[in-house]
Amino acid sequence: MADVHTDPAVIQGTVEIDKLLIEQDPDGNWSASVFDPDTVLLERESSENKTVVNEAVSPGERSPYYGDLHVHTEYSFDGYAMGTQATPYDAYRFAKGEAISNPGGFDMQLSRPLDFYAVTDHAMFLGLVKASAETVTEFSQSDFAASYHGLNDPHNYDTDFLSMVSRLGTFASFLPSAVAGIRSGDIDRDAVLKVVRSAWEDTVDAAEEFNDPGNFTTFVAYEYTASTLDMGNLHRNVIFRGSDKLPREPFSRFHSVNPEDLWDWMDELREMGIESMSIPHNSNGSNGQMFKLEDWAGNPLDDAYAEQRMRNEPIVEITQVKGTSETHPLLSNRDEFAGFEIMPYRVATNALSAINGSYVREALLNGLSLEQSGITNPYKFGFIGSSDTHSGAAAVEEDNYVSKLGLLSSEAVQRGSVPYTGLDAQTFYWGSRILAITNPSPRGGTAYSKLNGEVYINGATPTFGASGLAAAWAEENTRDSLYEAFRRKEVFATSGPRIKVRFFAGADLDESMLDAADGIERAYESGVTMGGDIMLSADDTRAPNFLVMASADPLSAPLQRLQVIKGWIDAQGETHEEVMDIACAGGAAVNPETNRCPDNGARVDISTCSINPETGAAQLSAMWSDQNFDPTARAFYYARVIENPTCRWSTWDAVRAGVPPRPDLAKTLQERAWSSPINVIPAEG
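The structure assignment produced for this chain is given below.
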């Protein structure tokens, strides 16, 4: 899917969509602010079980906990528009291992429970579509709500062409229509805020009900869903540490589309004793805006900007359903694993997203450049994954994947993995083309395409991935302990499997730490772990050693290789990157000329999705040192763990349907985990 960036037809389609985006919002409703920032506190009796980090547990005894910090339910405007009626309470039940219903009429259930979960519904008009559609609510009696009545009544769960067009129309029109109504005075602003605050309080109540310190952790959270005028994605999830003090309403794009205003609001709350962090996601769809080198006003970045950003955004979401944002083949052409689950479009459009400024590894490199120029680094972040499900249920397992779009992805044909047949094929194919002429939309004119004579859904949906999870090394499964891990960036991301990875650096690390009973404890004592800094001094410029240890998920494929990714900046200000294999399955040696493991013979039977697991490793570990280490160069290092190949979700769909896999999608993938980076800071002077 990375190849579409050079496809002339897609490039031309992007030009047309860019024009349409300007024409569709002449009144500026999409970027309008209709609410004032509000730091009034929520009045409620807190039932929070106060916990603190267990100081009796040494760092070496920290455990990996796996969760999802990006989950939508019926309170999100798009979730409800897509047929979702899962509540925040349902979402937490799902995370604890229970089955919940998909709008398509079947159950969704994880293979095993998660350790932590956060419902992050869109703050913009939180709960308002639901309140408009369900006629028992006070807001549903307004003139504005009438056209949405009964949206998710049982008789409205059809998946034919007209039903899908109607739901997509609700998704596209609800927000700008509501903003226009508030600006004109046709919709009572206070009535809207009443709905938002009620839904927010219920979200908090659900988190409180299911938080079980030591066993299962919930976080009070929401999504701030800003974007540029050209739909460059600037979305963030805001995670609150505790629940004893909270704002009465979340800060949304309709308070301000400028993320710097969000940080101001968070800083003001912090002064009131309310701690939170903001986690950017889908930078791949930001059209170059997430990690650009200027602020919202177009000024060059400075220390104040960088310090505020890092204070509020210590970690980023590197992988999720809408693609992986580590890097892109056009940025990292010497990294053969760079094309993993690329979603190349801006969010909610079929317009290409600009590559520069949209990927995490490039941002890390640009951060080094800023540091070298004397400016504080705003891009020194840790990595997590999460799902961005819109059905309450994390969709992270390839063989159990139903995408994120509720009713709109409940069938394989809607996910784009198998073709439409019969009359449906002609209806969707020609109907979409007629609609593109009569009612143009940011999805463009090719929502469906023909491949080898078969009709498939086109655009972003087939590029979605069954990803990902956030993992944290923490003393215990509590809000305080996990939040502290987020803050110190001792976190890692996985594309779905529960791979375990440790990553340490320090000149005093030694080979014995790989096997000794106290090896991890000693690594903490004499080095730094993922997310930390190696501070060189004039008296000690020794090259650090890197300890990397990984364990496979027993329910997934075995491991194929361990890698270290290095980025650095030279004395001339040029940035560089390198990918190095450091341990191979089967004890094979890394080729010293290519820095790559040999082919380990891992294969996938596409007809059944069976694999030959004996070729991989249950565990891989290595003590590695950088033979090209330069103590005068700023650098970062992070670990990447690669599994043996397995079937992609789209191939699983095809196998179950008894049809060949879609020809333009990868049939297999290699699941992976990424540690947060360790930064090397040269001695001053």
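Interim note for the steering committee: The CA atoms of residues 263 and 312 lie 6 Å apart. DSSP finds 14 helices and 29 strands in the chain.
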